[in-house]
Amino acid sequence: MHPPIPRQSVHDRAARRVDDDAGLDAGTASALAAARRRAVRDGDPQIDTAHLLHSLLEYDPEVRAVLDGGPRLARLLGYLVQRSIGYGLRWQGSVEDSGALPVVPGAEGCSPVAAAALSYARERAGRRGEARARGVDLLAGILVDPEARAVEVLGRAGIDVTGLRARIDGPALDVRLLEETSPPPRSSPLARPAREHAAGDEAGF
């Protein structure tokens, strides 16, 4: 008879997730938690950068402001919500790891590229002298690897990734103004159910 295989306790997993959230502000930690739920719901084995980007767009008005809104943002959301029925099908069962970046000790359940993005976000905040990374720091980390899944989706949506990097690294956004921004209206792509985005976009991949 084989000895029982030890299982991670709920407390062990919870403690690791608290560590994952360390160094993130409340909104970014919420986006990470949403990305984790999205990965589970889609049956994906790991959180990847596309999950992170999708959740940042939902939770962080500063990230949406950097992307300038408009038709391209709506198109980007259209691609992201199709993941389980469209382009994302070819990612199932594979690991997001381009090999372009050094291996970083992964956050719980994150792909190597997503773990590197989280590490970069914390380091970027630290260089500003801040203890917690914001959503834009995580977006900057996502853009570091040109072969990240999120970078591919941004390009497919017609978003200039080089220009986006320049905006992020340029003058700081007026965070006070962004804090006054109301949640997206019900007519916004961010507020509509996923099925309303899917029509007509899947052929782009």
- Percent strand equals under 5%
Helix content: 40-55%
Class by SSE composition: mainly alpha
Number of strands: 0
Oligomer: single chain
Gyration radius over CA: 17 Å
Approximate shape: globular
Largest sheet: none
Sequence stretches where pLDDT stays below 50 over 5 or more residues: 1-19, 172-205
Gap from first CA to last CA = 50 Å
Please trace the helix and strand order, writing H or E for each element.
HHHHHHHHHHH
Integer average pLDDT = 74
> Count of DSSP helices?
11
Describe this structure in words.
It is a single chain. It is globular, with a radius of gyration of 17 Å. The chain has helices at 10-21, 26-41, 49-59, 61-66, 70-81, 112-127, 135-142, 149-156, 161-169, 175-179, 195-198. The protein is mostly helical. The model is unreliable at 1-19 and 172-205 (pLDDT under 50).
Essential attributes:
11 helices; 205 residues; mainly alpha
Short description:
The protein is mainly alpha-helical. The chain has helices at 10-21, 26-41, 49-59, 61-66, 70-81, 112-127, 135-142, 149-156, 161-169, 175-179, 195-198. Helix 3 (49-59) packs antiparallel against helix 7 (135-142) and helix 6 (112-127) crosses helix 7.
Secondary structure blueprint with pairings:
Layout: H1 10-21, H2 26-41, H3 49-59, H4 61-66, H5 70-81, H6 112-127, H7 135-142, H8 149-156, H9 161-169, H10 175-179, H11 195-198
Helix pairs in contact: 2-3, 3-7, 3-8, 6-7
